[in-house]
Write a structure and sequence with these properties.
The complex is a heterodimer of chains A (about 400) and B (about 300).
Chain A (H helix, E strand, L loop, with lengths): L12 H10 L6 H10 L4 H14 L14 H6 L16 E7 L7 H8 L3 E7 L2 H8 L8 E2 L6 H6 L34 E13 L22 E3 L3 H11 L9 H14 L3 E4 L3 H6 L5 E5 L3 H7 L3 E4 L5 E10 L6 H11 L2 H11 L14 H4 L8 H4 L2 E3 L5 H16 L1
Parallel strand pairs in A: 1-2, 1-3, 5-6, 5-7, 9-10
Antiparallel strand pairs in A: 3-9, 4-7, 4-8, 4-9
Chain B lengths: L1 H6 L3 H40 L2 E2 L5 E2 L6 H6 L5 H32 L4 H9 L6 H12 L4 H8 L13 H26 L2 H9 L4 H12 L1 H17 L2 H5 L8 H10 L4 H32 L1
Antiparallel strand pairs in B: 1-2
Helix pairs in contact in B: 2-14, 4-8, 4-11, 8-11, 9-10, 11-14, 13-14
The chains are: A alpha/beta (about 400), B mainly alpha (about 300).
Chain lengths: ~400, ~300
């Protein structure tokens, strides 16, 4: 819903390489681009930096560079979970449109070996530009990767094809918490791809004890060293969850309580920013809201930064796979999504991208480093308390933004 | 026009003058085209969009047109934000004038044959991206940044000073960014000032301070007003500096508009806010320019 709440998934290896190259102070590519564009700076500069970033986005810069499974292994091992249902013949071609560096090694190849389909795989590095290009019906692309929170509006607009779940038997591999996501109940129009969380990062050398609750962001001992997000849905969401409400509440009274709680802590907050990375590496912020996916980047600069998801619960976000309504190769598209849900393929994707997939069956093939990283793979107890931010209806959205702007200005 | 025609009668003369007028018209054409394309047309878009509303898919709906957004522009929740923006822009302007005036004065009076070089130096920061310069300030000001490390190294402070994400860092960043816009108009008006007038004042037993207050200052007033406008207006519309160097600690009206557009994806409401800000700025500018004209023409 909010522009910025989409950012977490965006720290692809591309971002990391670009971020590293720019300055010591890192910022996410999307924020950077938005600011460049907003301030009317030369397109040339942007392009130059993009070029630098691309040149640097070698596989070695990939996050959590757990060695991706070699191409051969996936192709060689038969998918144990795919139920043998009679499958119609797929079309000979498939057009896929995905993020740069956002798929496991050999995944496309193993699909092409399994089915007589030639995959035309194209890349984007800006989801909003990609949405424009995909238009109302995919504009020639069969499969793309919209953000979960955007699925409802695409569904309403008729942009996405209703999935024929009989062609995707591997849906059975999904963990229980992903079989009925709030943005798309029953996964009727989309299938989750990878996901991330919003939590709290802290400097272990500064905090006096290991925090477990989001109340640490109101702790007067850390006055002037606390940051919240400059994103009303994220920050109000954290506060709502702390108060025991839904992060997507539509009740004005609950929103008032959340804002009252935020106002209480306002004097000790140093900054509201989504660039928690540079705020924390700069030493200004000791404890702040951060996307779990940013943590790897921080760890490059400061190994004393740890991450936790508040015991009260937290916000999760996800990218999905969806078939567009204008797809000319719908059967191949379904088979592709089914392939992506294969346990080993999904694990290969996670191992390369560094985000967990929703795939329960994939766990045994995922690198230990990722499985043991609570920032990426939280405990079951916490998992159950995660909530996705929803695209709020206009009148509800206004309830949020009005209160938020009054809080920020007051 | 008619009187000049009488002075130099003849068809040839008239033709020449018509040719002049045509040439003049052609010369302003690019300027007018530029303004039309990059000011009038976008502003027209903003006005039209501001009369629409958004549907549940965040699309802009223009049918029927409505003034609903304008009814919500004068929302009391924006009052502190407006006060904050005015405060930051005013402080930036005052500090810029205080720093810019001596610099402009010095370049004009003592720059000698290096004047051009000095002016190029004033413009030099523009050769690097504004964003990169703003981020550089962040590195300078943060808790383990250059300033704090230096202060601690020489033992002046024990704990880092809170510099970043304060009003101070925002005003510093904006003064730094807009100073050239202050210096250049001041320089032009100081440079046009006839030094003989000051010499005459001194001859008439004015001391340096009196000569400055009663001769220099009134004469460079148009430059001061122009400089103040050229600093105040961008400072009022800047949301990048408050965002990066203010870290959201200060909220400006420009930031509120940006948030309605991007995070809230409410273009019609954002447009209404933006249009009202444009009109208010324009009115303020017109008042200032009228004062300026009275100064120049009236004296």
């Amino acid at each position: 819903m909010t522009g910025d709440s989409r950012t977490p998934g965006r720290e692809t290896p591309f971002d990391l390489a670009l971020g590293k190259r720019l300055t010591e102070a890192q910022w996410t590519r999307r924020e950077f681009m938005a600011r460049v564009a907003a301030f009317g700076l030369t397109a040339a500069l942007t392009q130059l930096l993009v070029a630098c970033g691309q040149a640097g986005a070698s596989p070695s810069a990939a996050p959590a560079t757990a060695t991706p499974a070699p191409a051969g292994t996936i192709a060689a091992v038969a998918t144990p979970t795919a139920a043998p249902t009679p499958i119609p013949d797929p079309e000979p071609e498939l057009n896929v449109y995905n993020w740069l560096d956002y798929i496991g090694d050999g995944v496309i190849e193993s699909f092409e070996e399994k089915y007589p389909v030639k995959v035309n795989y194209e890349l984007f590095d800006d989801i909003y530009a990609a949405y424009e290009k995909l238009g109302d019906d995919g504009n020639g692309y069969d499969v793309s990767f919209p953000i979960g929170v955007d699925v409802p509006s695409f569904r309403e607009a008729g942009t996405l094809l209703k999935l024929d779940q009989s062609l995707i038997p591997n849906l059975a591999n999904l963990g229980p918490e992903w079989s009925n996501p709030g943005y798309d109940p029953g996964n009727q129009y989309s299938v989750p791809y990878v996901w991330w969380t919003t939590g709290i990062g802290y400097d272990t050398t500064r905090l006096e004890e290991v925090p477990t609750s989001s109340n640490v962001l109101w702790d007067p001992r850390y006055r002037n060293h606390i940051s919240l997000m400059d994103d009303y849905q994220e920050t109000m969401g954290l506060t709502l969850i702390q108060k025991g409400f839904s992060a997507n509440t539509t009740d004005p009274a609950e929103l008032d309580q959340a804002i009252a709680r935020l106002t209480e802590g306002k004097p000790i907050v140093r900054t509201w920013t989504n660039d928690t990375i540079s705020a924390m590496t700069g030493g200004d912020i000791w404890v702040g809201m951060i996307w779990g996916s940013d943590l790897y980047q921080i760890s490059l600069e400061n190994e004393n930064i740890a991450y936790f998801i508040p015991q009260e619960g937290g916000v999760r976000g996800s990218d999905t796979m969806a078939i567009y309504s204008g797809a000319e190769h719908p059967i191949a598209a379904h088979l592709f999504i089914n392939h992506m849900l294969d346990a080993q393929v999904s694990a290969a994707n996670t191992n390369f991208i560094g985000y967990m997939g929703p795939n329960l069956a994939a766990q045994e093939f995922i690198d230990e480093a990722i499985l043991n990283d609570p920032a990426v793979n939280p405990d079951k107890a916490i998992l159950d308390k995660l909530e996705e931010l929803l695209d709020l209806p206009n009148d509800v959205d206004k309830l949020y933004l009005d209160r938020w702007q009054a809080y920020r200005a007051g | 026009m008619t009187s000049t025609a009488i002075d130099s009668p003849g068809a040839a003369g008239l033709r020449e003058r018509a040719g002049d007028r045509l040439r003049n018209a052609l010369l302003v054409l690019p300027g007018i085209g530029w303004l039309l394309l990059f000011f009038v047309v976008p502003l027209a878009f903003i006005v039209v969009i501001s009369l629409g509303r958004r549907d549940e898919l965040h699309r802009i709906v223009l049918d029927p047109l409505t003034l609903e957004n304008y009814a919500q522009v004068f929302n009391p929740i924006f009052l502190p934000t407006i006060v904050q923006s005015l405060y930051l822009a005013t402080a930036t302007t005052v500090v810029s004038l205080a720093i810019g005036f001596p610099i402009a004065y010095w370049i004009s009076r003592y720059g000698g044959h290096r004047k051009t070089l000095l002016l190029v130096l004033v413009m030099l920061p523009f050769w690097t991206s504004w964003l990169i310069r703003t981020y550089s300030w962040m590195i300078v000001l943060r808790d383990n940044g250059v300033v704090n490390q230096a202060l601690q190294a020489v033992g002046l402070t024990q704990e880092p000073l809170i510099l970043l994400y304060t009003d101070f860092s925002v005003i510093l960043g904006m003064v730094y960014g807009f100073l050239p816009f202050t210096i250049l108009p001041l320089f032009v008006s100081i440079d046009r000032l006839d030094p003989n007038l000051i010499a005459a004042a001194r001859d008439l037993y004015a001391d340096g301070r009196q000569a400055f207050l009663h001769v220099t200052l009134p004469l460079v007033r148009p430059g001061l007003i122009a400089a103040a406008l050229l600093t105040f207006i961008p400072a009022m519309g800047d949301f990048v500096t408050p965002d990066i160097l203010g870290g959201g600690q200060v909220t400006t009206i420009a930031k509120v508009i940006q948030e309605r557009f991007l995070d809230g994806r409410d273009w019609p409401y954002g447009s209404a806010l933006g249009f009202v800000l444009t009109i208010l700025t324009l009115l303020g500018t017109l008042v200032a320019l009228r004062t300026l004209r009275r100064e120049v023409v009236g004296e």
